[in-house]
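Let's practice the habit of predicting before peeking. Look at the sequence and jot down your guess about where helices and strands might fall. Then scroll down.
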Amino acid sequence: MFCQVVHELNSVVMGNNFPPIIASRNYTYASIAAYEVMAGCYPEGYQSLAGQINQLPEMPKPEGNEVMPELAATLAFIKVGEAVTFPEGSMKNYRDSIVEMAKDKGLPSGVLEASQAYADTIAAVLLIWAKGDNYAATRGSVKYTVIDSPGRWIPTPPMYADAIEPNWNQIRPLVMDSADQFVPERPFPFDVTNKNGDYYKQVMAVKTVVDSLSPEQKHIADFWDDNPLKLNVSGHVMFTTKKFSPPGHWMGIVGIAAQKAQADFATTVYAYAITAIAKFDTFIQCWDEKYRSNYARPETVINKYIDAEWRPYLQTPPFPEYTCGHSTTSAAAAEALTKVFGDNFAYTDTTELEFGIPSRSFSSFRQAADENNWARFYGGIHFHPSCLVSTEQGKKVGELVVNKLKMKK
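Done guessing? Here is the structure:
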């Protein structure tokens, strides 16, 4: 049941056009709320994250034995997931249906009331803590300054959208000490004059691969596209299409893995929580670098210096190129899921079927993350060296999370 609840939140996130960075925050706080309910109800098996992630206070313990952990965790997830980002009531109907289902199945009123009360108690503490992450303050921060200088990021067609979340490095990390705890190596210096240089070679590699994509390469690019809001332009007609964002895609993978492993409810909640936490911190790490290097996208460079009519296979996202957000966070998620389900965990990812994209099968979570590197390159939106560096950075953050957090006893 919990996988269905997460999917419902995922659909609401998609419907409200939230970018992946903000979506990750929503999934994470909701997942922590559910996890803290499980830790409170099963202290012999799970340890609270209080004192383990930054500034999280002690969590209330359930009173008596009437709380139904699965129901309380689900209600806490919904309440925090709705409250952190969405207007009040966006998941009310879904929450009400779960409560009614519990009543229809004959759950005693005392158990229902105790479960609701414990969910509300945990949610209240989590929401107070969440307000301290500096998110509200960044809503009024200075926007990215567009400077059309060689090698610097500028908005790209067809949306020419403003840079998304240039101040995300001000958000409080969960496990990392700071946003710049893992600063990657410097990208290749901008230089389109030296055709034998590393920078020019990586630019031409993107153009060459996009100009001759095979059906398999297109499938890989489409499968990992995860563009939450694509602007389609056909003559004078413009319309948008929506899909799950990168964190939403990986939340789907968590559910697929949990179901294949026949994981119990508590293990499933644990898997969602540790994966969401790893992705949350990697977004902070990655966005810190994006607006440090302000690296231009391949599309910008190719259009200006090589071919004005060239377009990437995928639509370029509205933020700097270096490092790659999808590669970074995918690598971190792979480390978290490997911690829960083990290495060489083979699975078929069916997440994209609802968008008409055929499934792909993987021998491990790490293999899936590695394929994502190629996907961003095939899509023409990232230089491949950037993706490789991003994977190493994501692994570092993921390893920090799985080694530092003591969750499952």
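How did you do? The first strand starts at residue 230 and ends at 234.
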